[in-house]
Structure formats: C-alpha cells, structure tokens
Amino acid sequence: MRTLVLTAFLAVMVSATGALAQSGCGGNFSSFVDGLRAEAVQRGVPRSTVDTFFRNVRQDEAVIRADRRQGIFQRPFLEFSRALISQNRMDSGRRNLDRYRSLFDVARQHYGVSPGILLAFWAFETDFGAVQGDFNTVNALVTLAHDCRRPELFRPQVFAALELHARGALDPASQRGAWAGEIGMVQKLPSDILNYGVDADGSGSVDLARSVPDAILSAANMLRAKGWRAGEPWMHEVVIPQGLDLTRTGLRTELSVSDWQRMGVSARHGSLPSGNMRASVILPQGHRGPAFMVFHNFRTLFEWNQSFIYITTVAYFATRLEGAPVYAAGNPEPGLNQDQMRDLQRRLQGRGFNVGGVDGILGANTRAAVQDVQAQLGLPADGWPTPELLRRL
C-alpha cells in the first residue's frame, strides 16, 4: 500500500489563509476565476496546467441550490435514522462485510478502525458506490469558492483539485462527484485524497471512484489520522434512570463510565466498557427517546461530517452492523418544524446564546443553548426543543 502525501507545493497554497482571505469571494465570476488562475501561476503552477484546469470552468447554479436545500438534516433522529437505515442497507452491509472481509481485517489491524464504521459511511455516502454524484467536480468547487457562504472551506479545495490534476489524477472535464466537490465511494474532498489517499490495490494511483480497497483504506487512514483509537468503542445504547440530572447529558459533559453507572445509567444490552473510560450521554430526541453513551471515537467522526444528526446515525448504524439490536425508540415529545426552529434560534440569539446561525437545524450549538435555557426555565434540560419551550420563550 502507498499513501499519497501532501506536497510542499500544496501545503504552501492551502495553508496561506491570510492570502486566501484577501482574495475574497463573490463578484463577477469570470474575474474571480481569473484571480484563481493568477494565484496558481504566482505559486508556481505551470501556466499550461492552470489553463487546462480552468479552461471550461463555469458557475453551476444547481450546486448553490443543493447547498441551500439540505432539509434532510432538519429531521429528528428517529425519522432521520429510519430513513437512512433500510433493510436493504443492512443486508448490503453484511454482504459487503463478507465479500471484503480480508480488506476490513486490514483496516482494523493496520488502522484500528472497526468495519461497522467504514460500512456505515460507505452506505450513507454512496449506497456502497452506486450513487457517487453527477456534478462536475471543478465546477462545483469553484462555484462554492466563489459563493460567500463557506469560501474558507472550498477555495483551498480548488487548489487541491488543481494538484490532483497536475499529478494526472483528476480530469477537470470529466471528473464527476457530489455537489459539494466530494469524490468517490466514500465522498472525499480533494485535500483528503491528497492527505490520506491509499493506493491499496497497488495500481499506482488512488482511485476512490472505482477501487473498493482504495476507498475503504483511505477512509480508515483518514479516521486514524483524525484521532480514532484502535480497540476502543464509539457508542453504546443505554437506559437512563428517572431523576437523572439532565444538565449533565450532551457532548459538553464527559464523565467516567463508573460515574455514569453510579448515577444509574446502565447498558440496554450487553455491558458497558471499562469504568475509567471517559464518556458522554446523548439524548438525540430528548429524555423520552433513545439514549446513547458515546466515547472519544464518536467525537472523531465529526471530522468527517459536522452534522450531529448524521454522525449519530452513522455511529448507531455501525453498532447495528456489528450486532447491536434496534434502539428503544421510546415516546419522545413532539419537536419543532423548520419555521419554529428558526424562530427558536432567533429567540435564543436574542437572549445572548450562540446557536451557530439561524438555519432551522438542531445542531450542537443550538442543542447546548436549548439545554441551558431549559434549565433556566425549570424544564427538563435534555437539549430537545419542544413547542412548550418555544411558548415559554
């Protein structure tokens, strides 16, 4: 196996955050592309390579619409997880584990990453490679770099894609992928491919679109580099007792497993890990819904995707693929619709809370703010916003 290493050339281009910030975003699209061209040449990329890379680039309005339309992340955990975890995906996951067992053994032995996690991402990102996206990758990245919502994320990815092109690993005219510029079966951005790509099949190049070994071991390599610890758990379903101090739930609080057990938290099935291991208890749909104890490895998954609901579902699906039973759904209180959530976020902002933006999504910042204001109002402080909380505010 050979791992692609980020070159000094790319490191200079991507790490120069001050220069990138000065380049700005928005304005005339052609002028913006001219600026990218000039910056690439200034940093030492041959003009012929730059010309080929940017020759046919165009703004893709469908990319912007997709970026603004991420409504699935507004669903509550039970609805979201049931939508993503189908019986077909369960069956396909088990078949792929059997088919590529030796590959997943390498992922576990060499990188320390459990098969369930890799299968879960592979399933959710592309249905095991079947749906990899049909957006032109260069158009998507340049469009999102020009857009002023997240230029600090996507502008460096343009130059990472340029480096892939310079290496002969990306054809700007034909490379297709997701609307956000991710490529291949496990949907990685160009800088991830440069940093963590593994030529697992010995072909001489990293091909995340067609090579299952390259895709799986590249994903494992990235997770290990982001802090995944071999042999440690990531999630275990638990039962919480009546009367638990709910202000201690959520990702902001870490206690030892023993501490949680002394407070009455117990495993719903099997047994919890070592009593000295640090853990949080999360209630993705409040104290009347499922409860999970999560560990360090769960937190590393946010390096892949920052959506709380997505990562919680990935982690849970991984436990299912490795033999855990279906969660106890409970009977959660009704939540808020998108307009109500935005109203809630505005009201929380008005009280001085940082909710991370008024987007209608119950992310980590909004959950923390909800939990704090619930405690102030004498409501169950479980981080799950309800119509009653909105009424009280």
TrEMBL record:
Xref: PANTHER family: LYTIC MUREIN TRANSGLYCOSYLASE (PTHR30163:SF8), MEMBRANE-BOUND LYTIC MUREIN TRANSGLYCOSYLASE B (PTHR30163)
Record carries keyword Signal: yes
GO-annotated molecular function: peptidoglycan lytic transglycosylase activity
NCBIfam families assigned to the protein according to its UniProt record, in alphabetical order: MltB_2
Pfam family, one: PG_binding_1
Name of the protein this chain belongs to: Lytic murein transglycosylase
Gene Ontology biological process terms in this record: peptidoglycan catabolic process
Location of the Peptidoglycan binding-like domain: 338-393
Native species: Rhabdonatronobacter sediminivivens
Keywords tagged on the record: Signal
Positions of the Transglycosylase SLT domain: 29-318
Cleaved signal peptide residues: 1-21
